[in-house]
Design goal:
This protein is α/β, with parallel strands linked by helices. It is built from 17 helices and 22 strands. The strands form six sheets. A seven-stranded mixed beta sheet has the order 14-15-16-13-12-18-19, with helices on both faces. Strand 18, helix 15 and strand 19 form a beta-alpha-beta unit.
Amino acid sequence: MEPTTSATRVLDNYIGGAWGPAQAGERLPVVNPADGSILAEVPLSDARELDRAVDAARAALPEWRAVSVIERARRLFDLRNGLDARREELARSVTAEMGKTIGDARAEVARMIEMVEAACAIPTTMQGRIAEDVSRNVDCETVRQPVGVCAAIAPFNFPAMVPFWFLPFAIGCGNAFVLKPSEQVPMTQQIAFEVLAGLELPPGVVNLVNGGREVVEGILEHPGIDAVSFVGSAPVARIVYERAAATGKRVQALGGAKNHMVAMPDAVVARAVEGIIGSAFGAAGQRCMAGSVLVTVGEASERLLPALVERTRELSVGAGLDEAVDVGPVISAAACERIIGAVSRGVEAGAELLVDGRDPGANGAGDLAAGGSYVGPTIVAGVTPDSELVREEIFGPVLTVIEVATLEEAIATVNASRFGNGVSIFTESGAAVRRFRHDVQAGMVGVNIGVAAPVAFFPFSGWKDSFRGDLHAHGPDAVEFFTRKKTVTSRWFGDGEGSGAYFVER
């Protein structure tokens, strides 16, 4: 770690409606991956801070639940407007601490705001059901009520958007909320919580606790937390799911991915190439919806690959705040080393490098900062199905190409993966699309779309090892996850018809 200076900002926690320093003394640097400079220091809060946040959340619950659902929605409208007013500031913060290009960061912030817009519909989406006269003079209704205190553990790759997959829906449904952002990218949520602090919510409705493993494990075990949302790697998602469920919590745990893109012989080449590049190399491949395996069917290989390789070599690598840059750095030097190591092992095992991005500075990427964590766009072919580059999530700008003869083989290739987050097909054949979407084992399907991530009104519906739980992030699943159903059966006797026996006359 580089030595800090007196000017280095130390981030605060937001607990019980107030900003304040963490009691724990240990801190980590927040590093700009474009040049290695230190942006701030984040405290590694301990169990005491989490206890304070949960206590504040539980104390706030009765007052917040008593606020009408329409008034809660109005607060969300205010949140939407507050975030929109700081849209560019949020985007530049995302780029500074995570590295993605400013264009990608602006798109992320737009999705963040879109989540709040979807949550503003809570007065409609939270409605229950009623059936009159289920028996003589007997009515039955189901109402939705908040779960309680909800917590989210967020990843590094979407500092703005992913926490808002959960927060606006949770508080809109009447819950209190505790967020633990990634310790690698904690600064963007400081801005978001400044906006939240201006909404005059009851103190403790929203809380932010910075930290690392101790806070994560505390969330999983804490008896005062009723529901946990997690986004991260598949192995950790499984641990979160098992440990939180073991303590009686409701859990949604979104894990890793190895998304495939299938190119048919009739694909529109220019459009397919742009879709594949955007999916594989956008955000330097650090997306759980990034397409990292391209499966070409029949003649698609000879039609598509030359243009794909040529276009990939034209991509510029550099600091994300440069508007002309196509691919920014990866999150850290450790990630850079891990990604390059995976590519090198693949080459040693016989893979063919169509585009080698392991040393982007030497490949004409320009003047890259010495402390930056850069990996250029890389395309690898000639791999076997058991290759690490086919099976494992590399989480970098690496695209692996597999050639097959038929659509059936392509579907079998996709379905062989233990992951099932997203998949795309590039074709003009409706019959091929119908067969593909019916048989493919993935929760999100794109047709001539490289990144099949749904808008906020639909669920982020990963399958297999990409998800643990039964209710997904955002969309209608969010309301299901952040509410409990209560069914009320009632009979009234004021009309003089009270002699009927309910259990007899059903």
